[in-house]
Specification:
about 700 residues, alpha/beta, 2-enoyl-CoA Hydratase, Chain A, domain 1, Rossmann fold, N-(1-d-carboxylethyl)-l-norvaline Dehydrogenase, domain 2, 8-stranded mixed beta sheet, 19 strands
């Protein structure tokens, strides 16, 4: 068992002790049942407190059981036993009570918590729903209209807010155990009937008649294509319309439907992948990250300003360098507007806006960067400009300062060669908008020091990013694979699909937008400039011919009100463009292409299998450590739908690697023998009957 039972005067204490987060393992479940049995058998025990040792209350299920399946006693049975206790039960919450932890607390008569505790039901983020009574008890406790949004979001709720909602009975000060015992003694001495949530009822008539149908429509819009949110609405509706026992049976049925759905497997893959991503092979455990107390950012444009905001948000002072006073004022003006927009939405106070702006020091001189611990350049994506910047940084930066490039494609080793300290140079590739997107692609150069790499991973956590380490090659992990994605989209347009058809197929698959619309958003000129530093042999000229023609016409995307699509001023809605269609027709004629009908299935297969085939090469070459790292890059950097697990997980689990290989070979025959040459790694895995997990 993972804990013990002890008596504190007339109060029995069930103390769970299963470090580090008191996950609700079989041992924890046995501990709770044993403690409850002892309390029931002891006439001197008048009330019971359930508390946890260590830094937190029960933070959720034992993740080891995600793969093995739970063992008896099952959590719903444990909570049912709590519900039937003859003595008042008090849950004493500190740290986090998430998922099953909160469900256990809801099985008690009362809940007390320290002020900095948090509660929540995050199961929706794993593709499932609360399966131990959460969908039945929370609506009965606080009402359907409060409970359903909480379960659908899966977000944590601070204890004071939870008390306002009625989830927590009392926010306590001082020693939690002493306060909980005193609260339990008080309730035991009151002599009244102690509330059982299972006995509460919901007044269905008090809800709008169309409430649940309205919520289903809202969920369909806000949580597009997701399976478990709709089942959550069904479960909460059961709480409002059925008896408690029948509602529990319905919850169990819906829980199993979610657990068996492919989305649950995909989202749980993401859960584990995100925890693996910071584990870097060949870095000694004793490596100490360098201390980062101040940062400098070169460039106050869209990327530079967004990068600077990340550090100001974390309370780290940032010196922002630009080449002109006008550029500085414009860039910092955009930053201020971003902060003020957050304040208008209630996410920041006016004082916090000023605090963060005060951390940004504008400058026009490289000499003002001499004390920075970390310097990140965010300038134009050409080696000529990077060389100018890093030559200057080598002159002014203090010894031990980390010099980072926000390059999307260019060689970190080449950039490092512009300095006398290549061991201090690495890539820190932020994704636009840099103050919003969670991914930070950390690019290790050939000579990047281990402590520099470790520091970048620590910085990622500090600024609330998910840091993924990549090796050095053109485009690293994300943009190298994106070349296949974009290449096939460009070719499909020439072969007969319209830009709208390509993008709609990708959107329906689950992407936040299609790849052509994404190009318009980022700026078609970025790829155009990038190709100036590449050999024509490095890409398929035919696939970018339309985009390059558009750029040369001044159609760079949204910022010029025209790219693949037309845009009205102040409106980002893409509209089919006659100008673009004329360019497409001209390029088709140039290459002698007769357009044909193209299915959405072909669009999906070609765009994503091209990406996966390159991903296999990224793995084979050691650019990525794990297939799951690639999945994280695409989830957090490119909007690949999490419910599909990432491109590599999708290929292995939805398509099947053998089937994927056969399709790739087919496209090698019908589309391009060069670009569809199967990865030797994929061929080997299929021949050996293995999956990507075998590469770890």
């Amino acid at each position: 068992m993972s804990g013990r039972f002890e008596k504190r005067g007339p109060v029995g204490v069930i103390l769970v002790d299963n470090p580090p987060v008191n996950a609700i393992s079989q041992g924890v479940r046995l501990c709770i049942l044993d403690g409850l049995k002892q309390a029931e058998a002891d006439a001197d025990v008048k009330a019971v407190v359930i508390a946890c040792a260590g830094r937190t209350f029960m933070a959720g299920a034992d993740i080891a059981e995600f793969k093995t399946g739970p063992k008896e006693p099952h959590l719903p049975d444990v909570i049912a036993a709590l519900d039937q206790s003859s003595k008042p039960l008090v849950a004493a919450i500190h740290g986090t009570a998430f998922g099953g932890g909160l469900e256990i607390a809801l099985g008690c008569n009362y809940r007390v918590a320290v002020r900095d505790a948090k509660v929540g039901l995050p199961e929706v983020k794993l593709g499932i729903l609360p399966g131990a009574g959460g969908t039945q008890r929370l609506p009965r406790l606080i009402g359907v209209e409060k409970a359903l949004p909480i379960i659908l979001s899966g977000d944590p709720i601070p204890a004071p807010k939870a008390a306002e909602l009625g989830i927590i009975d009392k926010v306590v000060e001082g020693d939690l155990m002493e306060a909980a015992i005193a609260f339990a003694e008080e309730k035991a001495a009151s002599g009244g009937k102690h509330p059982r949530i299972s006995e509460k009822t919901i007044d269905r008539a008090a809800l709008p008649e169309t409430y649940f149908d309205d919520m289903r429509r809202q969920v369909a819009k806000e949580k597009r294509n997701l399976f478990s949110p709709q089942r959550i609405v069904d479960a909460v509706e059961a709480a409002a319309t059925l008896s408690f026992d029948d509602g529990m049976a319905k919850e169990r049925q819906l829980f199993m439907a979610c657990a068996m759905n492919s989305q649950a497997r995909a989202l749980q893959h993401v859960f584990f992948a995100e925890r693996q991503v910071a584990k870097i092979p060949n870095i000694a455990e004793g490596v100490t990250p360098r201390e980062i107390k101040s940062v400098a950012v070169i460039g106050a444009g869209t990327m530079g300003g967004g990068i600077a905001m990340n550090f100001a948000n974390a309370g780290i002072p940032v010196t922002v360098l630009e080449v002109s006073q006008e550029g500085l004022e414009r860039g910092l003006g955009v930053v201020r507007k971003n902060y003020e927009r957050s304040a208008s939405r209630g996410k920041l106070t006016a004082a916090q806006v000023e605090e963060r702006m005060a951390l940004l020091k504008p400058t026009l001189s490289y000499d003002d960067l001499k004390d920075a611990d970390l310097i990140i350049e965010a300038v134009f994506e050409t080696l000529e400009v990077k060389k100018q910047v890093f030559t200057q940084l080598d002159r002014v930066a203090k010894p031990g300062a980390i010099l980072a490039s926000n390059t999307s494609y260019l060689s970190i080793d080449t950039i490092a060669s512009y300095t006398s300290r290549p061991q201090d140079v690495l890539g820190m590739h932020f994704f636009s908008p840099a103050n919003v997107m969670k991914l930070l692609e950390i690019v290790r150069g050939e000579k990047t020091a281990s402590d520099v790499l470790a520091t970048a991973l620590t910085v990622a956590k500090t600024i609330r990013k998910v840091g993924v380490v990549a090796g050095n090659c053109h485009g690293f992990i994300g943009n190298r694979m994106l070349q296949g994605y974009g290449r096939e989209a460009g070719l499909l347009v020439l072969e007969g699909a319209t830009p709208s058809q390509v993008d709609k197929a990708l959107y329906d698959f689950g992407m936040p937008m299609g790849v052509l619309q994404m190009g318009d958003l980022a700026g078609l000129d970025i790829g155009y400039r990038s190709r100036k530093d590449q050999s024509p042999d490095a890409y398929e000229p035919k696939s970018v011919r339309v985009a390059d023609r558009l750029v040369e016409m001044g159609r760079c995307g949204q910022k010029t009100s025209g790219g693949y699509y037309d845009y009205e001023p102040g409106d980002r809605t893409p509209k089919p463009s006659e100008v673009t269609q004329k360019v497409i027709d001209e390029v088709r004629a140039e290459y002698g292409i007769t357009p044909r009908a193209i299915s959405d299935q072909e669009i999906i297969e070609r765009c994503f299998l091209a990406m996966v085939n390159i991903g296999c090469e990224v793995l084979r070459e050691g650019i990525a450590y794990r297939a799951s790292d690639i999945d994280i890059v695409y989830l957090y950097g490119y909007g690949f739908p999490a419910y599909r697990g990432g491109p590599m997980f999708w290929a292995e689990n939805e398509i099947g690697l053998r089937n994927a290989l056969e399709k790739i070979k087919g496209y090698a025959e019908t589309v391009s023998a060069r670009w569809w040459q199967p990865s030797p790694l994929l061929e080997r895995l299929v021949a050996e009957g293995k999956g990507f997990a075998s590469l770890r």
